[in-house]
Specification:
Helix content: 55-70%
Number of strands: 0
Order of helices and strands: HHHHHHHHH
Radius of gyration: 21 Å
Structural class: mainly alpha
Strand content: under 5%
Distance between the termini: 44 Å
Largest sheet: none
Number of helices: 9
Length: 282
């Protein structure tokens, strides 16, 4: 099956389906783990007793449960996609609706994983592309929900990109190192220019780190395409929310999901888009 593009895509899709289920756990729990850690750190700084947790809380413990009634999710109720439809999108105990987010993340991860397998074929490039994809999905969803871009994902992602490009998988190491530096400094500069001019913070430091990670994976040559695509999409969505959804202008809109989407587009079509753009410039 690995010798067949269709077979490889099917394997990657099934793997993505399973990883999508785990990503739902990461998206839900990691921000809460961060907030608990911050609460402990704040208590230590104030020389106060640390908050006492009644039970361990991490990516494994406790078992997943219904947020409404506390029903523990069984293995048969946790089969990606299938369980959601068999349960009719409701908790088996209290019949409360299950968020459509869960099957959406699973299906998206499966489809994009299969697409990358079809595009890259069997090899190190596919392994790296899948790791980048799964990390970006988690980061985009967490940023959308909480406006956090956890260092526990962005920083290992940056180093992993440099590691892959140590062997020239996506670009040469020199381009990857320059990409990481330029990606961080580019948004850092935009942040400070915006802050000096307006007195407001236009984005968070997590955005700097995410663009640095994308630069480490794809090289400095694709940074202009990533920034351009993410800015155009982000501006279009932001204007639409303000005009049609009455989204307040002072309410921040997370930029991470647009960076993540632009990074995936650049991963697959970045060089072709850059060549087409340069050709238009003559």
């Amino acid at each position: 099956m690995l010798d067949s593009p269709g077979g490889l895509a099917a394997i990657a899709g099934l793997l993505g389906l399973c990883l999508g289920s785990f990503l739902n756990v990461v998206i839900h729990r990691l921000p809460r783990m961060m907030e608990r850690e911050w609460a402990v750190q704040c208590a230590e700084l104030r020389d106060e007793p640390a908050p006492v947790d009644t039970e361990p809380f991490d990516l494994v413990r406790p078992r997943s449960r219904c947020p409404t009634c506390g029903h523990a999710i069984t293995a048969l109720e946790n089969i990606p996609l299938l369980s959601y439809f068999l349960l009719g999108g409701k908790c088996s105990a209290c019949k409360s609706p299950i968020s459509l987010r869960y099957p959406a993340i699973e299906a998206t991860t499966a489809l994009l994983s299969a697409g990358l397998a079809w595009h890259f074929g069997y090899g190190w490039a596919l392994l790296g592309a899948l790791a980048l994809l799964w990390s970006l999905i988690a980061l985009a969803a967490i940023d959308f929900d909480t406006q956090y871009l956890p260092d526990s994902i962005t920083l290992p992602l940056l180093w992993l990109g440099l590691l892959f490009n140590l062997f020239g998988v996506f670009t040469d190491l020199r381009s990857a190192v320059i990409g990481a530096i330029a990606g961080y400094l580019l948004l850092w500069s935009v942040y400070w220019i915006f802050r000096v001019v307006t007195g407001k913070e236009g984005m968070g430091y997590g955005d700097f780190k995410l663009l640095a990670a994308l630069g480490a994976w794809l090289g400095w040559q694709l940074l202009p395409a990533i920034v351009l695509i993410s800015s155009l999409v982000g501006a279009s969505v932001g204007i639409s929310l303000i005009v049609f959804a009455r989204h307040g202008r002072n309410i921040p809109i997370p930029f991470g999901p647009y960076l993540a989407a632009a990074g995936l587009i650049a991963l697959v079509w970045g060089h072709a888009l850059t060549r087409a753009y340069l050709a238009q410039l003559g």
